Amino acid sequence: MGAGNAGKYKWGVGPILGFPTATDDALGTGKWGAGPAVVGFFIQGRWTVGAQAYYIWPYAGAHDRPDVGQFLFQYDITYCLGRGWCLLSTPIITDQSEESSGDTWAVPFGGGIGKLVPIDRVPTFIAVQGFYNVVKPEQEADWSLRLQFKFLFSK
Predict the structure, then answer these.
(1) Could you report the per-residue pLDDT of 64-109, keeping only the tens digit for each?
(2) How many whole angstroms separate alpha carbon 34 and alpha carbon 50?
(3) How many whole angstroms separate alpha carbon 98 and alpha carbon 60?
(4) Burial category of 18 from C-beta neighbours within 10 Å (exposed 0-12, middle 13-18, buried 19 and up)
(5) pTM, whole model, 2 decimals?
């Protein structure tokens, strides 16, 4: 594992683990997995720009389930307007690949608005974003809506 800090730039590298904890076969791979993860971002004035990515290789688990590699890439572009308001785009690009299938990528495009508000004296970022799936598996929806609550705790 590693991390760095060069002025306004921050980054980190480490492992990611996958566990077969789904209560229904449709909700998980049924496999144990592991892989690398990386994150980085920088802040310049009112802008925050960053990205995170990981890949999980399956290595054990249900023998009757296919081995599915899981890739995730999420970029984050945020522009702060002032008074706690921000414009943002944080789509989650995924690939759930099996060797026998090619219809596995989900590539959304879109964004939304967010606001920093106190909830019981805890700074909380609340955001809503809409995304159109430019590329998607046949069974996935064309559009998605994400509502986020991020509780910000300082040291």
Answers:
(1) 888 889 999 999 999 999 999 999 999 999 998 765 566 789 999 9
(2) 23
(3) 15
(4) buried
(5) 0.86
Would you say 115 and 125 are in contact if contact means Cβ atoms under 8 Å apart? yes
CA–CA dist 39, 129 (Å, integer): 21
The tokens 């081995």 sit on which residue? 67
| Residue 43: burial class (beta carbons within 10 Å; 0-12, 13-18, 19+) | middle
CA atoms within 13 A on the CB side of 28: 14
What would the pLDDT profile of 107-136 be if each residue is shown by its tens digit? Answer: 999 999 999 999 998 999 999 999 999 999
User: Which residue bears the tokens 């706690």?
Assistant: 84
Distance between CA 34 and CA 153 in Å, rounded?
A: 28
Report strand pairing: 31-44 vs 9-18.
Answer: antiparallel
- In the block, tokens 């990611």 appear at 16
| DSSP class of 29 | -
Q: For residue 94, what are the β-bridge partners?
A: 72, 106
